[in-house]
Amino acid sequence: MYVIDPMVDKQPYQFPYLPPYAGASKPPAVAGPDGHFDHIQIGTPEFEAAHVYACVRRTLDICESYLGRDIPWFFEPTYGRLEIVPRLRWDNAQSGYGFLEMGEDESRGEPHPFALNFDAVAHEVGHLIIFGVMGAPQFDPPHEYFAYHEAAADFIALIGLLHFDTALDLLLRRTRGNLLITNELDRFGELCDEKQVRLFSHSLRMRDVCAEVHDLSKPFAGALFDVLVEIYQVLLFERGLSDLDPRDFRDLRSELSDEEMEELFSASLGVNDDRVFALKSALEEARDFVGEILVRSWDELEPQTLDYRGAAEAMIQAAETGRANRFVHSIADNFTWREIL
User: Fold this and answer.
1) Which DSSP symbol is given to 140?
2) pLDDT block averages, 10 residues each, the chain of length 341
3) Which of 33, 80, 83 is nearest to 56 (CA)?
4) Whole-angstrom distance, CA of residue 82 vs CA of residue 338
5) How far apart are CA 127 and CA 22, in angstroms?
6) N or C end of the chain, less CB within 10 A?
7) Helix or strand holding residue 102 (H, E)
8) Nearest-CA neighbor of 132 among 115, 152, 147, 117?
């Protein structure tokens, strides 16, 4: 990978205009004597360059750890490296054949670079990683393929967030362990306190969404979130950290009110340090179970024929042959409830 920061306004890449960028660029971010970049001042172009590079590298590392091997760029051998553009005057972000480009958000009244938003970067890298493992379609795939890409890329960003200790601490202390209430984990692509791209925690089924790709992605993304939360809650119950066993309910959101869920959790979950460490351990274990299942399912999928049912069945197969095999029925039940199976 390499980062280029154009000296002049650059238009987003669009076929047939593809990397490499041939214009003048600003000086690159330079490592300190210890090889690190933590001496760079926040608010500088060099910081944005180093930050977006680090987010790409971290997301790739996480997915490779689940897969157990290196993940190649799908555009090899045309391009040997990924070109990263940290900031364009553009209200979007995109990844594609040899490139990753980040725009900026103006919802706060002044431009804020997506290069500083881990969710946004990890989502775009997620698309590249899926292509790298599964391959790119050679002809038009089923429409659900594109919605699946959005859901899976969203979830990769969420799994990535859960690898940061500070995020885990903040999340668990604010929610007291109840991840079904609105929180930072549920908000994907959060831009400010009142705005986010999509929510994971919802009760949308296939009957409730339209064919627009991002809307269609919601049931699958919701099922992934439900699997994560259910495994986490089962681990809490088994370890005596919660009185709530999710296996006793068909759908917690519809069968229990927010007050009832809060009461069940509050009866056994405190905010002292010892309890937070125990909650964190359960959430990290659930994170790795679901991350591993998702990433390893891609080996069983063909982009030309991928649809939701096939993707869900591939996750069940990955669970059956992995560490999370005792949760196979929970995974199948969640996808069934969402009307995917």
Assistant:
1) P
2) 93 93 92 94 95 97 97 94 95 95 86 92 96 93 94 94 89 77 55 49 87 93 92 89 72 62 55 73 96 97 96 97 93 94 94
3) 83
4) 36
5) 25
6) N
7) strand 99-102
8) 152
Question: Which residues, 6 or more positions from 137, have their beta carbon under 8 angstroms from its beta carbon?
Answer: 145, 303, 304
Looking at the DSSP bridge assignments, the partners of residue 94 are: 101
**In this structure, what token pair is assigned to residue 90?**
């553009």
Residue 188: strand pairing partners: 198
DSSP for 178-218? -TTSS-TTTEET--BTTB-SEES-----GGG--SSHHHHHH
The Cα–Cα gap between 223 and 220 comes to 5
Summarize pLDDT for 266-310 with one digit per residue, the tens: 544 554 556 788 889 999 999 999 999 999 999 999 999 999 999
Length of the chain counted residue by residue: 341
Element (H, E) at 48: helix 45-67
Nearest to 179 by CA among 249, 262, 256: 262
Displacement of CA 236 from its chain's centroid (Å) = 23
Q: 63 is written with which tokens?
A: 């997915």
Q: State the virtual CA torsion across 310, 316, 319, 320 in degrees, nearest 10.
A: -120
pLDDT single digits (tens) 149-187: 999 999 999 999 999 998 888 888 777 777 776 555 555
The model carries a pTM of: 0.89
